[in-house]
Fold Aminotransferase class V-fold PLP-dependent enzyme.
Amino acid sequence: MLHFDSDYMEGAHPAVMERLLQTNHESTPGYTTDAYCGKARELIRKACRCPEAEVYFLVGGTQTNEVAVSSVLKPYEGVISADSGHVNQHEAGAIEATGHKVLGLPHKDGKLTADAVGKYMADFLADESAEHMVRPGMVYISHPTEFGTLYSLEELKALSDVCHKYGLPLYMDGARLGYGLAAPDSDLGLEDIASFCDMFYIGGTKVGALFGEALVITRPVALKQMITHIKRQGALLAKGRLLGVQFSTLFTDGLYMKISRHAIRMAGLLTDALKSRGYEFFAPPQTNQIFIVLDNDTLARLKRHATFSVWQKLDANRTSVRFVTSWATEEGDVNALISLL
Amino acid sequence: MLHFDSDYMEGAHPAVMERLLQTNHESTPGYTTDAYCGKARELIRKACRCPEAEVYFLVGGTQTNEVAVSSVLKPYEGVISADSGHVNQHEAGAIEATGHKVLGLPHKDGKLTADAVGKYMADFLADESAEHMVRPGMVYISHPTEFGTLYSLEELKALSDVCHKYGLPLYMDGARLGYGLAAPDSDLGLEDIASFCDMFYIGGTKVGALFGEALVITRPVALKQMITHIKRQGALLAKGRLLGVQFSTLFTDGLYMKISRHAIRMAGLLTDALKSRGYEFFAPPQTNQIFIVLDNDTLARLKRHATFSVWQKLDANRTSVRFVTSWATEEGDVNALISLL
Amino acid sequence: MLHFDSDYMEGAHPAVMERLLQTNHESTPGYTTDAYCGKARELIRKACRCPEAEVYFLVGGTQTNEVAVSSVLKPYEGVISADSGHVNQHEAGAIEATGHKVLGLPHKDGKLTADAVGKYMADFLADESAEHMVRPGMVYISHPTEFGTLYSLEELKALSDVCHKYGLPLYMDGARLGYGLAAPDSDLGLEDIASFCDMFYIGGTKVGALFGEALVITRPVALKQMITHIKRQGALLAKGRLLGVQFSTLFTDGLYMKISRHAIRMAGLLTDALKSRGYEFFAPPQTNQIFIVLDNDTLARLKRHATFSVWQKLDANRTSVRFVTSWATEEGDVNALISLL
Amino acid sequence: MLHFDSDYMEGAHPAVMERLLQTNHESTPGYTTDAYCGKARELIRKACRCPEAEVYFLVGGTQTNEVAVSSVLKPYEGVISADSGHVNQHEAGAIEATGHKVLGLPHKDGKLTADAVGKYMADFLADESAEHMVRPGMVYISHPTEFGTLYSLEELKALSDVCHKYGLPLYMDGARLGYGLAAPDSDLGLEDIASFCDMFYIGGTKVGALFGEALVITRPVALKQMITHIKRQGALLAKGRLLGVQFSTLFTDGLYMKISRHAIRMAGLLTDALKSRGYEFFAPPQTNQIFIVLDNDTLARLKRHATFSVWQKLDANRTSVRFVTSWATEEGDVNALISLL
């Protein structure tokens, strides 16, 4: 059986495991106050060219989104998101659990446009009953999106501009950030993201870590006592150094980008094969998530040999599905999949 | 200046004021445990032909929706609503404040269809990632809707059937229920509503009371300690008897329906005049809220003589507006408005 | 039967009812944006000698506390209160429903001391694990307290000083504020309260209004969009002018103080009689709530002729009970009660 | 420097690390649906002699408490705890963040007594204003407690009896459960805990795992869709198998108990030395947390050579401190500490 379901099916990159093993018997203070976390913070600030940024380490993506969003919004504020956004669809209401509405706007291949945000804000401010409505308080985007697509530098700048025009902090969910940065299509570097966004997170879980996300805050938009806030959300890891060890490994000698590029190369092989065989793409293939449309026979046949996500039934004979590569994908498996197609 | 902004611009029907005055110096226990509330409960149960119903008295509409919805849902559940629903648009995130998502579905003139609910549930249950999504836990409708439109008996029955098929309690926001019941188009009686819905509220604020809503629960779908739940939401009126006095007055000698019919007759006069003058309706005029489309000149001219709600700018020269009649609307004012049109 | 259970057993003072009746047919905009609310705000600012204060009108006490506290605290902050405080005991967890802990400190006849607050803060700041604890974010007191007792000017000033030393806004629950201001023991005027507290509310429900509380914010400690915040809590009255009419009546020609003094005079008659007959007081009788200790026989006898609150069983033969007078208490009833004692 | 601050200063037991390494490249489905979690569930059910128990895997203690408590309580219910309980003191308001009050009762060496619970419930039910109060909905205990003390079988049975008499599910926080089970004083086995408690968790983070807690539910007291509930709390680990691998290792060949006994033996050496040197104990030393009282000079001297928790300043010259041993404590370090005493 070939596995292309997701990018969190294996453990961690061997270099990460090795460092965890090497440091296993050291005694360190808890709750991300240790020296490994300190070093990882420095490496991340440097990679972002943002020496003043605050960096917090968390365990998973939904948790990070919940912590980040609720650290910015006032009680009566909501977060604008593409309606396809992870916070709006696949986090079981974690944002609402903190008391806030997700204000879903129509998306374009999973992306939110500056125009959509600008129009929503103009309409909101002109509305006679605005005081009776949830006030937009920040904007959430994911990069790559839930459809594997990417913002261009121009698109991100436009979003950032409209957000700042209306006083809305811009937050980027970077669960798969490495795969976005490594994509050949991308003209966005980490320093651009740090410059245009007020907050973002660098995903570890899906990019070589056992688990972990690094939340980066580049402007003073969040609560002051973030550690207490994180503790209250049940999100403060006791052995915080596990996160420090992992992120300092990933951000040493370019490992994070190196393994991201591998996943993108694997995705490229698959994309090329799909294109040459005339498969229909459900979203433009830009990163490590490839969405295609399968007819019933092909779907049934592929299911016998590979695991992947069934996304959406489009009509009686057509279904969209997702194949995902990762740092752990082996070229042999990609070739085996290609020969099945 | 003529006032057609809303149905909560005046105080209470004179009969209600009179009863409040007559009972003003009596000493009664608090928190809706008094005999007036007891009597009002009996009158409402009788009017609904539902002798077993639980009845709770609250102060306002948003508060009642918040109390009702959060008394039914489990933490991870959300409430399905037309995306135009009051809970989704004009309650400042009161539902989200209790931790729950509003799952907005496309509406038809403000109404939710049984088909839309059925399709949403079928898709949800077929979704591979349903466990990571907000689970639909109940259905919210308003009757009349935010556009003044009405469910037919057939439509309500279909909704009720699909809800019960999927184990979803059906809740009706009856902020303007009297005006719905009194509408000539309506084939729905209070007893039908009590039979098809698991919970609903009978609006007082907009239908002759100073303030107050009566929440009726016809099946055991809500929390057991409702008084504690209401207290926790800051919604338990100390001098609860004020609600009992008002509702017992409104439900004695058919007053609630009598004053509702007056508002509907006033709306009918206005509708007829609008039709005969060729005005475009933004939604079918069925109750006491009349939505029409005005060009800029007419809008500017009317604004000099009357107050009303500006709903939505449709294009450069067209705006939808809302005129509302109520128990307090005087025929002379309607005629004066008509002569302005 | 004589009624001394509470100060919310009757309707409103006749002057209030009269104004509600006079204004009943006027058409006004909703949600406390009308001219009556405007006038009431001005009268209250003047009475507080605080021309810059923000004033918001709400319906009840628990609701006002919930709105006020959640408008000040950050998510990870809690509110310090005497452990006997209303927010800690008798609001069914309304503060916790907004996500905040009530940090209960030992009380002295229902009062919180500056020393207790100072010690708590010093300990908190010295605690190695403070970051893992709820951060104190404001201080709640009630005046009169739940035991009918009063802060002196000196005590309030000391509390205010310690609060401001530690950056904690001071909030006073004034459900029975009139009765406190009118007490012969009191050296605190409304302007002192406005000066020492950052927020407080002037109770209407228990002091002559049908319902209603006026939340006064004297320093910029609360959320900016308070109307949206109030709406989200289900606490924004549609016919807001009812609150404006009531408070403008109560604050015209000294009515609020006049009716408060009446209640205090009635309580004084009762207190004198209790003292002369040697009854044991459970708390110092300072305002309109009189707590005494009864043996079983006397308790049983009095219950046959009067209603009052049974507070706490102290031992096999002794129970503390509460008698309450109000603006509506008639001297004849007090005398009748006295002759029963 | 010697480290006795806590039991989460090192990584994981070598056997756990080895299994993580062995399984690192396997592809498994996410979110604790994998076979390793399945096996771990079976091993835990067997160890508890509770074949029907539900078992969920979470990352940390505060998170587990938050998920567990909010899965049982209705909105208006609170959780009874010793006022020294972890949920009441050191979780930054995580329970309140889910909308629930912690009802703190006086403790005895960190333990809650059946009498205290019984008296609280009797008083609550007899209280005239019980409907206005937070309703007790469950009972939280920790074992070992925050003071390292233990419930006896008799004490736990009495608590369980009073809980069930009043319909309150009993929940045990077992962050350090292994150290409790391994204590020579203890007459409680895992099967007793599973029998007397409705829910409890088996701590991994402090007992040999990198991280992880196993929540065991022995009676149907919790929400049905627990995975969705966990996801909503941001607590569902993507690579859930990491938890399955760890717990299946800990529950194979008695490893969990073996490493727990080691920590207890280390604590015993230290306790004997402290006793023989006449040190004052702040709480009875029963498990791996040893609380003693130090004078200023000894405190200053020890701080130069060892790290440990400073608990509470008792008076000008006396401070309580805590020394903690764990699975990772080396006998040489204990001896070095002893020679410092």
Summary: Chain A touches chain D through 52 residues (CB under 8 Å). The radius of gyration of chain A is 20 Å. The first helix of chain A runs from residue 14 to 22.
